[in-house]
Amino acid sequence: KIYLIYFLITILLIPPFVTSMMSKTPNSIKLYYWDFAFWRAECVRLALFCGDVPFEDVRDAKKDDMKAAGKLAFGALPVMEVDGKILSQTQAMAVYSAKIAGIHPSDPWFAAKVDEVINGCTDVTSTIGSTFSMEATEKIKVRETLAAEGGRLRMHMGGLEKLCIENGNNGYTVSETTTVSDFALWRLAGWFSSGNLDGIQKDYISSNFPAITKVVNTV
User: Do the Cβ atoms of 86 and 73 come closer than 8 Å?
Assistant: First the structure.
């Protein structure tokens, strides 16, 4: 009886704002990006797909129009619109999608490791992104330096490799099952292997990072 009374008191004392946060699967989800499989959007798409969560995959987003509509808080895509409310930033969207899809770790440590991998992918992207505005010849030279031993790109990729090894080199980034961070790393590696990054060899990942390659093959 004491436990029952305690339970009832606890439920009754939960503030309304807390119960409102215990949300169900949303009625409407839109993901705004473009028609290519860049990892920032693709990890969100795949998480929702794997969880059979319905969503509208908007692949012809007009950045200027969305900015004018107040939907780009940080001025960048992708963004999600969930029941009319906007969510941005890759990590937030990826984790939210994984949670409602039922593929996010419940263990706090593993959940934090998912965040760590996604942030590592963001670091890699920022490093490459810093070269986009360079003249072609300079861009290739700088990227080759970044990718070489001692380079910033090699450091970031090496960090992701280390995380995969520390997880047991089992073909997953976190624990022993698929998480949204696997999708993120898989598509990041696909970007590097596409041949679209001048100055980065297509076999850069497969030749230098075997643990990452194992995750790619598992996905």
Answer: yes
Give the integer Cα–Cα distance in Å for 189 and 173: 13
- Over residues 9-61, the pLDDT tens digits come to 444 444 443 333 334 689 999 999 999 889 999 999 999 999 999 999 999 99
Paired tokens of 201: 């060899």
Nearest to 127 by CA among 202, 195, 210, 192: 192
SS3 of residue 87 by DSSP: strand
With contact defined as beta carbons under 8 Å apart, do 144 and 190 qualify? no
- Angle subtended by helix axes 136-147 and 152-166, to nearest 10: 40
Give the model confidence (pLDDT) of 48-97 as tens digits. 999 999 999 999 999 999 999 999 999 999 999 999 999 999 999 999 99
- pTM score over 0.90: no
Where residue 149 falls (left for φ over 0; alpha for ψ -120 to 50; beta otherwise) is: beta
Determine contact, residues 55/48, Cβ cutoff 8 Å.
yes
Phi, psi angles (nearest 5°) of residue 80:
-110, 145
Separation between Cα atoms, residue 54 and residue 97, nearest integer Å: 11
